[in-house]
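Lay summary. Proteins are chains of building blocks that fold into shapes, and those shapes determine what they do. In this project we predict the shape from the chain. Here is one chain we studied, written as its sequence of building blocks.
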Amino acid sequence: MFVNPRRLLDQITLLHGPHDLLSRYFLIADQAARDCGVRLRLRSDFDALMELNRENRDTWPAMPPVCDPAHSNLRIDSAFWLEGVDDRGETVVTHAARLFDFARTNVVEEIRSLRVYYEDPASHIASGEAVDVSGAASATAVRGRAMYGGAVWVRPDWRRHGLTKIIPRISRAYAYTRWGTAFTWGFVEPKMHDFGLSRAYGPYHATDRIVMRLAFRKGNTPAVLLWMTSGTMLEDIERLVDQAKDSSRLSEMAMTKRSSSEPLHGISSRS
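And here is the predicted shape, written in a compact code that computers can read:
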């Protein structure tokens, strides 16, 4: 049973950004998820996210410390995760977001220092944990208020529903209107990047591959660092809103061409 009856739209307050565009987008995105059979809600309990990760470890790699409350200070005012459930109330998709303020630094330096992973990285650096970011020079542009996006998981039986094109975009847009972010950034595995997952997530810049050596994964782990400006994010959702308008116009044109005696099926009222 879905334990939170509030719709995603009831949880969102528009603060920053173009309100008309964002409100239209959230309506469209929420309906797109519902058309897939998924109801969405925002959550702040990262212990629950960690437990979900442990329960699904066969299809979901270990959670990075950036989303682990045992290592990071995941405050309610600077972190959330988006949960999608099916009609049985079972979680089928997740995506997490964190706010970082790189006012006097940039994302590359913060990754190198391990401060994005650990509230206190000193002991982890002493034990040999490190990230080689020599291939990520372009991402030094990521400064100021920036959203980290990660913990993307779609249950295997839901992986052909296009949810990876919907859920990360909702998180980016919500983080922007909530926190006034200037950038979004995150990581993707090289094989998934090559497969096209980064393009599904949105119009990201992709750096050369970096190499992580962190305790939550054994050995050296290559990754691609992705980043996007909020201007690019808004252009992306404006395109999606325009596409939805065009689809509505085509549907309306098709209906006006019907004979008055022809029955109409599946038509519902629209606000």
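What the prediction tells us: The chain has a mean pLDDT of 90.
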